[in-house]
Write a structure and sequence with these properties.
- The protein is an alpha+beta fold.
- The longest helix is centred in the middle third of the chain and has 18 residues, at 123-140.
- The two termini are 38 Å apart.
- It has two domains: 18-141, Nucleoside Triphosphate Pyrophosphohydrolase; 175-305, Nucleoside Triphosphate Pyrophosphohydrolase (Alpha-Beta Complex), CATH 3.90.79.10.
- The chain is built from six helices and 18 strands.
- Strands 1, 2, 3, 4, 5, 6 and 7 form a seven-stranded mixed β-sheet that branches.
- The chain is 18% helix and 29% strand.
- A hairpin with a 4-residue loop joins β15 and β16 (247-256).
- The structure holds zinc ion.
- Zinc ion binds at residues 145, 147-148, 150, 163, 165-166, 168.
- Zinc ion is lined by residues 145, 147-148, 150, 163, 165-166, 168.
């Protein structure tokens, strides 16, 4: 699978480890047949959680199991087969199927969230879960037809909802968002603390793309709105599916043209320019934690820094 940007190599959730086999979704009775095949690998998703086996040296892994009676009562999604060694498979590998229960599992050592363990899963487990979670999140809030309000039905192996009243088809949504490492003329990095962040948490700026807007225009608009700066040299670095609940984070570097920072106080609590030395010093002093390892935000910061940054692993959002 070609990669457009090489800067953020092996970004979590962004490796092409799953051959989705979209062609199979319209096969008659695909799900019933897979649910009686003992070779099928079922991943159970309960709300935002899935069962995870604690790792030894290889890190944690997603629990898969053969189908069992009752799976057909859940929302069942055909996910595809694992890609072996970089190329699409011939479709002969075991099929991955998600069985989704919309009610949240109790948080335990076993039932974890993708945010918690995503960075430590192997590429296939991460790709399987990120696809399952994204589609599950969409089903959770799209039970009714946006045209006529009737309850819709699941179709095409979990990838479509169909309205029985007007026969309209509805497809899973992805909401693009831009996320950008803004640097100044001295190559310092701008970090901000959003409202509701952990008191030491800071990250790069981000925001949703609006209708009718290009990605580069969204970068420029968000930076202007949030910190009052004009940017130039907007460069794409990579992108990451982020199913919390349904984003695609598209990562950029951008250069500030100078001028003074003016915070948008309704959204931002603090803004600061960091040199590399200042970033390390603030972390060492316990005054700063940057975005967790699972996120493209962390990788954008590390891309600017020039290597891994050791930061306490905290959730930026206060809950
Ligand atoms: Zn309808």
């Amino acid at each position: 699978m070609p990669r457009i940007g090489e800067s953020l190599r092996d970004l979590t959730f962004s490796t092409a480890a799953l051959d989705r086999r979209a062609d199979r979704r319209v096969e008659p009775d695909l799900i019933p047949r897979l649910l009686v095949d003992p070779a099928t690998r079922v991943v159970e998703v309960r709300g935002d959680r899935a069962a995870v086996r604690p790792g030894g040296d290889g890190g944690p892994s997603l629990v898969t199991r053969p189908p069992r009676v009752g799976d057909e009562d859940g929302l069942v999604i055909y996910l595809g087969t694992a890609v072996d060694g970089g190329g699409p498979t011939d479709g002969e590998g075991p099929a991955y199927v998600a069985v989704v229960r919309l009610e949240e599992a109790e948080p335990t050592e076993e039932w974890r969230t993708l945010r918690q363990v995503g960075a430590d899963l192997d590429a296939v487990d991460a790709a399987v879960w990120v696809a399952a979670q994204g589609v599950a999140n969409w089903h959770r809030v799209h039970g009714f037809c946006p045209r006529c309000g009737q309850p819709t039905e699941v179709a095409q192996a979990g990838w479509v909802r169909r309205c029985p009243a007007d026969e309209s088809l509805h497809f899973p949504r992805t909401d693009p968002a831009v996320i950008m490492a803004v640097v100044d003329e001295d190559d310092r990095l701008l970090l901000a603390r959003g409202r509701g962040f952990n008191t030491i948490g800071m990250s790069v700026l981000a925001g949703f793309v609006e209708p009718g807007e290009t990605l580069a225009a969204a970068v420029a608009r968000e930076v202007k709105e949030e910190v009052g700066l004009d940017v130039t040299d907007v460069t794409y670095l990579g992108d990451q599916p982020w199913p919390f609940p349904s984003s695609l984070m598209v990562g950029f570097r951008a250069r500030a043209r100078g001028g003074r920072v003016r915070m948008q106080e309704s959204e931002i609590e603090a803004v600061r320019w960091f040199s590399r030395e200042e970033l390390l010093a603030a972390i060492a002093a316990g005054e700063l934690a940057i975005s967790p390892r699972v996120s493209i935000a962390r990788r954008l910061i590390e891309d600017w820094f020039g290597g891994p940054v050791d930061s306490p692993e905290v959730s930026l959002r206060r809950r």
